[in-house]
Write a structure and sequence with these properties.
By secondary structure, the protein is α/β, with parallel strands linked by helices. The chain folds into 3 domains: 70 residues, Up-down Bundle (PLP-dependent transferase-like); 243 residues, Aspartate Aminotransferase, domain 2; 123 residues, Aspartate Aminotransferase, domain 1 (Alpha-Beta Complex), CATH 3.90.1150.170. The chain contains 14 helices and 12 strands. Strands 2-8-7-6-5-3-4 form a 7-stranded mixed sheet, sandwiched between helices. The chain has a 5-stranded mixed sheet with strand order 1-11-12-10-9. Helix 9 links the parallel strand 5 and strand 6. Helix 5 packs parallel to helix 12, helix 6 packs across helix 7 and helix 13 packs across helix 14. The radius of gyration is 25 Å and the shape is globular.
Length: 485
């Protein structure tokens, strides 16, 4: 039986199958009472292992029944108000509509002759985002798979644009990237992929608010120059993964201009501020960047994946350009045929821009920005709650929507034991399925983390999760005391 869309009969099969699937997922979403079932790897793996992929079920309903057993029933549901772990967001309905359309049509955004209007829609959204950032009339960009790819491409452009050292040459082992100790791990990963030396990334200390210390950055840039090294790039973070902190962008821009370094802003998390009706000023200085990473699938409430890299000077994207006669021959440039593959590290690429397009056309930028404002307001309320709760130590007051904290029992003073209690509480909470929180380290100690990206989450949800954490931690400490005696 042919399953692709060729005629009226298969079109009707498509309608029926998709409707059946949507109804099944919708029912599961409504029925979900917790963010996770608590299923273990050992319990779930055998269900999947016993499936023979060479024996198709041949029926949509049967496949959906099986999917409930091996996936839907035990999925981690980001839309649940007590999922407060990683930078995952519930998705807005217009974006889900866009996802359904782009998957069915299946355009590939590498060349014009595979996408037509899709290319122009992506370009329009790139221009819109660059305008929101303030990059100027020569700006351009391309959609990517996520922040890691955007950061990699940005640093590739920075490497190729790096100014020669004192001897007039640029050697990879002399290039240096400066990023705060709170920057995303993809900075180090990108440096390795780009063939830079093991000392290529210089970690700059942060202040009490977890923002890059520009005095320290200036000192490191001076040392770089003094040692005959080349300051290839400075990566400023606008929304660190753990703390949501925003580096001092205007001061970093001044230092980049003085030392001739490429300024990249990783705004994968903080890009929601571009649409915020009240908090846009937090990104002041981003308009001076040479490149910017944005992840719409974080703070624009889009399905994965929906991200982009923006650059101040479109000409810089030439470093990702290669021509193939069977795809994008050089003559197409003269013919002004818009091929997005000329700007991208990817070739075949989904029309992920459509999700953002449908969202903006239904909700508008203010509608998206108001949702992000709501989670930032909730984080501020959560901060006040934690600061007033003697059971918890909270690290910094949030700028965006993350809270890093840990349970600190009054009767226990051993930091290692408190670490173990917090690790246990997180693991036990996940196993229960009642809530999902993240974990990290601060000052060498284990902490827990709320990442708030669900406007449906309330202060009452946060209070309930804090009580659950305390209960699990107390249970661990009680059992630990029993073992010791």
């Amino acid at each position: 039986m042919r399953s692709h869309l060729l005629n009226d009969r298969t079109a009707e099969h498509y309608r029926r199958s998709v409707t059946e699937g949507v109804e099944r997922v919708a029912a599961q979403l409504v029925a979900t009472k917790s963010p996770f079932s608590g299923v273990t790897v050992d319990a779930l793996a055998p269900r999947i292992e016993r499936i023979d992929l060479d024996q198709p079920l041949g029926d949509t309903a049967a496949v959906l029944d099986e999917l409930e057993e091996v996936y839907l029933r035990d999925a981690v549901y980001f839309h649940h108000p007590r999922y407060v772990a990683h930078l995952n967001c519930p998705v807005v309905i217009p974006a889900v509509l866009g996802e359904a359309v782009l998957s069915a049509v299946n355009s590939s955004l590498d060349t014009w002759d595979q996408s037509a209007g899709g290319t122009l829609i992506e370009r329009k959204l790139v221009d819109w985002t660059a305008g929101r950032i303030g990059l100027g009339p020569a700006a351009d960009g391309v959609f990517t798979s996520g922040g890691t790819q955007s950061n990699l491409q940005a640093l590739l452009l920075a490497r190729e644009e790096a100014k020669p050292g004192p001897d007039g040459t640029v050697s990879l082992d002399r290039l240096r990237i400066f990023a705060s100790e709170m920057s995303h791990f993809s900075v180090q990963k990108s440096a390795k992929l780009l063939g830079l030396g093991p000392d290529a990334v210089v970690c700059v200390p942060v202040d009490q608010a977890k923002r890059m210390r520009t005095v320290s950055l200036a000192r490191e840039l001076e040392r770089c120059r003094r040692d005959g090294l080349v300051p290839m790039a400075v990566v400023a973070t606008a929304g660190t993964t753990d703390f949501g902190s925003i580096d001092p962008l205007p001061e970093i821009a001044e230092l980049c201009a003085r030392f001739g370094a490429w300024m990249h802003v990783d705004a994968a998390y903080g890009c929601g501020l571009l649409a915020s009706p009240t908090r846009r000023a937090l990104l002041t200085g981003i308009e001076r960047a040479d490149s910017v990473t944005v992840d719409y699938h974080k703070s624009f409430f889009q399905p994965v994946s929906s991200s982009a890299l923006l650059v101040r000077d479109a000409a810089a994207l030439r470093h990702a350009t290669y021509h193939a006669e069977y795809l994008n021959p050089r003559r197409m440039v003269a013919e002004r045929i818009p091929n997005q593959v000329d700007k991208s590290l990817q070739t075949t690429r989904r029309f992920d821009a459509l999700k953002l397009w449908t969202t903006l056309r239904v909700m508008g930028a203010d509608g998206v920005g108001q949702l992000f404002d709501e989670v930032c307001d909730l984080a501020a309320e959560g901060w006040r709650m934690l600061a007033a709760d003697p059971r918890y130590d909270v690290v910094v007051e949030p700028v965006l929507s993350t809270l890093v904290f840990r349970y600190v029992p009054a009767a226990v003073t051993d930091p290692a034991e408190i670490d173990r209690a917090n690790l246990y509480a997180r693991k036990a909470l996940f196993a229960s399925g009642d809530a999902v929180v993240a974990g990290t380290k601060a000052g060498g100690r284990h902490y827990l983390k709320f990442t708030l990206l669900n406007p449906e989450t309330t202060a009452a949800d946060l209070a309930a999760v804090l009580d659950l954490i305390a209960g699990h931690a107390e249970q661990y400490l009680g059992e630990s005391l029993d073992r010791a005696s």
